[in-house]
């Protein structure tokens, strides 16, 4: 939806210049980010709850920059960073009374708002939420509503606002937009949103069944290797910029204490996953399990962050 | 097969053919066969004689004769004496009062109607109830039986815990106590027949024809209007004239087949229907159908009239309740009026159809048997045929 | 209608009393043999009537109606558009070629051009909802995602045109492409979650979509055969030139179908109506398609949908009901109220077990499963 109330800059017009020398040297391959982590190794997460004093609960989450990004920052070869790392802030307002006009609700009414900062992605986002941001909001709401014990707070509302300060890329910047087109970065963003929102809700002291955390797994085929039989491999916590082709990805919101999934979003062709021969699972089951493992990893950070924020309030 | 996809059916588009005994024939000298070319804008009526149950459309002059008074569904032009219809429907006359009775209207409450309604709003001393009427009905706190074993006045404590009686979404069966100037109804549940509904399923019927028939002769709304003109059953795929009609009994108990036990059916005059398991205990059942004297009431109130906990309902009963629900759906979708007679006819017919099919397909595999309880589609026609035969 | 729009959730919460919810839930969760309110079997769909090519002004269209009167119409329109290189990409190779192209017009590039997902635009119009409400946005993203994401298996005969999936099919040449507008119109307020209806209608509309035959070749500016009879189907059909065999055209590639599946207790139920979805423990939208290179169905996407049961009103057990004096001695005390009491409705809490998800997906994908039957049923629809 076009933003008619403001004078916007040219759509997608902001891009650093690329110099011809770079073109000629065809450092294409060399500049390409490569995954340095093990397939099951997650990026480090920085998560801190209770940073915004005016909100009843808040949190800030940051993913560790990938190795190539860190290298590029210390020793810049190009003006374009090879990848980006997720940074987002979450605020929770409430529980507060519903507006007078609202109908009676025996449960806590949850409202989620996901917004990219205009500068969050390589392409500038408008000020009004677009379809993908609304879509993310719905996903997040589904994930959280399963965890919150809503009937403890009748007739009240809870506003959860996520601001994405730096988003994940959908692909390596140098790749044409068609190579793997789907918005894989959005899935990472959603996983981050879930984890951060969960911390903020806990920080706001709202009753929850369990801390719900997000995790992403993907089937990746890096055809850089010459072997033709490169079946796609399962990787946890992917950085889309590090991969040539992502076949399918899955994000879950997971509650470890109950072993339950409150939100599942899987897309892409998962039928050709390379699994162990004696592995009876199908591709999508493996993918979901992988995402659950990633969510478990994030949950340890989440629990620690919540504990830390409580300890701070005691001190 | 999990899915059935049918080619589109051309709706019955044959031109209107008046029945031989149709009252349209009264103005036969210029009756237009609904060719769609022109509608008689002004249809000269035979002065004082025969303003019968012909069908008029909005804007059509019903009569020029000044001796008639205008009633519902009409208006008069101040400059002339003609009475002009404002709704499409049949003309009705009561003495010298002319009114046009819409063929299909929403429910307009009348005093004494038994209705099923859903609570949509809780206010400080009353509930707002959806009864499929244009306006929400109200149920004052003073019009319900308060618990406590004795008949007593409402207290402020009752007002504070008003949601413990009825809350949003709850279903109630009630009676229309009074109708206000604006057409909204005031309900009461001061009888043991009435109160919160549970142990069953709710069904909202479309095409409810409980229109405002002020004269007692046409009580029964559209269904009765139809039968007056000689055809109780509209053609399948008809214009949705089916629906609940006012009848002798709106509440009855069905002894169901297949070990389903007894099932209560409540046909709200407003088209809302509730089908539930008959509560255990014959005395409760009998007292629910009879009028309990006001003196005995206090003993009865303590029972579970405000409970929202279901009894234990065996699967057989659930199956038969589902069957009854579908029978009513089949009736309504085919434009048949819904009352005790037709519902029971359809129910028995569905049992019979099942029996026949069961004979045919004895050797079928297990999975073919799945979904055989689904009555819409081909089975609906069989059921309908059988119902028609019985009527 | 405020009751329908309560909360911004993608799923609507119908007003049902706790007693009704409890009755429905127990009926639907009966082990092995759930009793649905309309007597259907768990995998049975409501019968529907379908027709295609109903709108002469479109490239393809379809209509599907349920017996209860809910209908959906889908019109597909295609427009030719100039391909612009997206501003945020910088494939150096294509950049170099772009520069060359200025000098040497019409040089055949060796790199195959593949399409972009944003060339497919989908909009869903549901009466009673604004077009930026959560439900239409969520639905259109869900359906577009599987549509764009479906990529054909590859080297099967006839599937070549669809090599890049729907996206690839939209490429005319390097500088031009088709833009596809899929507009879905629901004719009445939805009586149930409208996903299956919309998805099936879109499927049929895409099958009936034709694009004019291209007469130009290579990198020329495209011009087309103005004979509509010569137009080609968007989803190509196997060459059944023999008219006697063309009764049921077979498609190497078919558009995806999104099915709505709910889990209630141990049961997996398809095509739920409004009441059934209100008591579901889990709601999944599962998109599948079939390509000719494999016999089995291919999973394209799964999305969980917020089950409306989480927002429902809890029932009060008789033991805690203050109006039932005599049943228990001490009413009103908040004695936990967490444990399940038979016959009392509790809003669903928590999520889904992985086993349940696996079972739901399996029912769709399995051999002779529901997904196959639905696709077969859709094949039976005559597409002109």
What does this molecule look like?
The complex is a heterotrimer of chains A (315), B (391) and C (384). Chain A is of the alpha+beta class. Chain A has helices at residues 20-25, 28-31, 67-74, 131-145, 184-203, 283-314, and strands at 45-49, 57-63, 87-97, 109-116, 156-166, 213-220, 233-236, 246-255, 260-268. Chain A is globular, with a radius of gyration of 20 Å. Chain A starts with 19 loop residues before the first helix and ends with a helix. With 391 residues, chain B is α+β, with helices and mostly antiparallel strands. Chain B folds into two domains: 54-100, OB fold (Dihydrolipoamide Acetyltransferase, E2P); 111-208 and 240-359 and 367-388, OB fold (Dihydrolipoamide Acetyltransferase, E2P), CATH 2.40.50.140. Chain B has helices spanning 156-160, 221-228, 282-289, 294-300, 315-333, 340-360, 366-369, 378-390, and strands spanning 5-6, 55-56, 61-63, 69-70, 74-76, 83-85, 89-94, 97-102, 114-122, 126-130, 137-140, 171-179, 185-188, 195-196, 200-204, 243-244, 251-255, 262-267, 272-277, 337-338. In chain B, the strands form five sheets. In chain B, strands 9, 10, 11, 12, 13 and 14 form a six-stranded antiparallel beta sheet that branches. Chain B has a four-stranded mixed beta sheet with strand order 2-7-8-4, with no helix packed on it. The model of chain C is unreliable at 1-11, 86-112, 152-159, 241-248 and 326-337 (pLDDT under 50). Chain A: Keywords: Cytoplasm, Exosome, Nucleus, RNA-binding, rRNA processing. Chain A: One of its GO terms (biological process) is rRNA catabolic process.
